[in-house]
Amino acid sequence: MKFLQFSMLLLPILLDALLSFSMGTSYHEDFLQCLSLRSNDSTSISNVVYTRNNSSYSSVLESTIRNLRFNSTDTPKPLVIVTPSRTSHFQATIYCLSYVAKVPFVLVDLVNFRSVDVDAENRVAWVQASAIVGEVYYRIAKKNRTLAFPGGVYYTIGLGSFISNRGFGLLFRKYDTGGDNVIDAQLIDVNRRILDRKSMGEDLLAVTRTLEQNATQLIFQWQNIAHQLPDEINPDLIMLNFNSTQNGSRTFQALFTSLFLGTIDELLPIMQQRFPQLRLSRQDCTEMSWIDAIIYFNQLKNQPLESLLNRTFLKPLGSQYYKSKSDYVKEPISETALNGLISRLTDEQAPSAYIIFMAYGGIIDRIPEDVTPFPHRAGNLYKIHYTVKWQEQDNVNSQRYIDWTRRSYRYMTPFVSKFPREAYVNYRDLDIGSNNVNHTSYAHARIWGRKYFKNYFDRLVQVKTEIDPKNFFRHEQSIPPFP
């Protein structure tokens, strides 16, 4: 892929999502009345509040749910949804939840906070939290198609959670995570104060080839090579379960996909020297601009740039049911062990399963693990992402598919990181632990917290204790304060 010029775009984030819980099951009318009294314009705030009696309640709630496992009749629903259109709405909501609300929970949806302001000359942008990655890419490309930001591959990802959880994408090995390129931020704390970087403190801010034959040998070799490739190469390996064209039985397909920040003429000699077994040729490669690469990886071939503005686009993952887990690998896995994993991938119990190996190395290795909340750095060869997906008509078999991910995860125990067995926070996995309802224990949270954050977990707990000591903002795997 050809980049005539690559410049780093530094991106601040305005606000992160707010989810607040309170004790009790009634009195939400008190909460609504409080909102009206605390808002400078009661008419405007009434237009962004949705109760269960509102005809738009369901559509607002379901508009961004991508995993339908969490949209069943048994899933707890908020009694009130607030979609603020101005900062004062946030402050009023926090005040009323703090002093009046006695409801199970209220959801604050940031859909109206999505502006993107790009200063191409100074290579910086100010972006509100509800903007999706595609909107950011689009605004950058309209100003300068040679600028980019290390956001996610899939463009419907919300930027607020992407930044705060240290999300990554195709530029990961060259420019680190998206959150590590933030130069300033604003957020509202539990006391309704608007904080920026100075006032909050640094601690808070803190190529494709398909192979069906002899693929195991190439996968084994990839493990030893991918993390040592130049920073400009982002090599991934995708293994799919599919029907063989030769005999109709279940088999697997290995896809070696890469993005290279350079030309084909620069890439070919590198790969011929480092990974000759792949037999990469000019015909396997396509040169394009960065923004066209984003369109390509989102399967939007021949679609206009404006396609990136579609917040409801469902491909390639789609709005469906799925279960995911993650692992980190520090030593190459033997061919025998890989064959064991592949045999599970071709299991008929999970016909839509896939496993992705994502190479690390590059700039990731050169940053100490205790500097940012993303500690999975030097020593990791690659990350594993296990996923199985299914559609609504097949939901009766959901437990079978979920069990497949758990069996595959158990099988990999001897071959992955240990003490702790690391996990990637953006692939939220409640199997590894979650907070108890209405009671968050530091000792309990540390079990899963160290998997996501390693020793940085205690630093996050310290920050949480300073800014939210009563644990007002929380969810199943939120950071707890010290007792």
From TrEMBL:
Q: Any idea which UniProt keywords this protein has?
A: FAD, Flavoprotein, Glycoprotein, Nucleotide-binding, Oxidoreductase, Signal
MF GO annotations: flavin adenine dinucleotide binding; oxidoreductase activity
Q: Write down the Pfam families for this protein, in alphabetical order.
A: BBE, FAD_binding_4
Where does the source fall among the domains of life? Answer: Eukaryota
InterPro entries documented for this protein: BBE, FAD-bd_PCMH-like_sf, FAD-bd_PCMH_sub1, FAD-bd_PCMH_sub2, Oxid_FAD_bind_N
Q: Where is the Berberine/berberine-like domain?
A: 423-480
Q: Where is the signal peptide?
A: 1-24
Identify the residues that the record assigns to the FAD linked oxidase N-terminal domain, covering every copy.
105-191
Protein's UniProt name: FAD-binding PCMH-type domain-containing protein
